[in-house]
Amino acid sequence: MTPVTVLGLGPMGRALAAAFAVDRPTTVWNRTPGKGDDLTATVAETAAQAIAASPLVVVCVLDYEAVRSILDADALKGRTLVNLTGGSPQQAREMAAWAAGHGIDYLDGLIMGAPAAVGGPEVTLLFSGPNDVYQAHQPTLAALGENAAYVGEDPGRAAGFDASMLDAFWTSMIGIVHAFQFAAAENIAPADIAGYVKVATGLLPELIDLVAEHLTADNYPGDASTMVSAAASMDHVLQAIRANGLDNGVLTSARAAVQQAIDAGHGSAGFSRLAAL
Questions:
Q1: Same domain (yes/no): 78, 13
Q2: What's the Cα-to-Cα distance from 57 to each of 114, 118, 174, 221, 271, rounded to whole Å?
Q3: Are 147 and 201 part of one and the same domain?
Q4: Which of 79, 58, 57, 7 is nearest to 36 (CA)?
Q5: CA pair distance 11, 23, nearest whole angstrom
Q6: Which domain holds residue 257?
Q7: Which residue of 57, 62, 200, 255 sits 20 to 30 Å from the alpha carbon of 138, by its own alpha carbon?
């Protein structure tokens, strides 16, 4: 079995190391000593020693700045680096260019799931970078979970998926939190509104498919709802939000985007037209 090194033993890094260590030699390193002592793995004294122990090196730390601060280019030369640290697509591409310049094979990836899910069917992993590099290490990376997918040669592609999904998630979460704030301003108890918020957000999965369909076809029918009707609805909500003295920044930005579409001549188009502006 191919030996693996894991750099970074935060909650996710520990989970990765534990999954690898089930059936293969695993070496770990962490900036703060002592975190890997309870793992079934060899604990290296330095990052360079850990890197030298394996042909496949997985790094999972706080950010790309931390990644750069611990990597030893000389030790990594001729090895494969898999970066599971969250970051932007541009950061992933810059890291890939750095790796290529030092004779290091590079894959970027993301983990969709909690540390406790790593190694099981509940976690999803996406990888991007050279296909031959991914195929060479896919059997080893499969230890992290059976739901892994290769999404393309562009090393920034996995991070692009990640940022797109997190964009949807955090924007939705802000909307949900704001809904509870507005309800409280109207003396509606959390338990009373929660079920209705679920009904409203329950429409989103179907709408996601619909937006993707419209974008693929480059056709944005307004038979169900138009930009003009969306603007009217938003105006009513904004009026109520402002009357309660609540922050209206997010919805005001959304309303401005809708107005931009209307001004560009898309008032009769469906809301999905915004994704193509």
A1: yes
A2: 21, 17, 37, 49, 45
A3: no
A4: 7
A5: 20
A6: 161-276
A7: 62
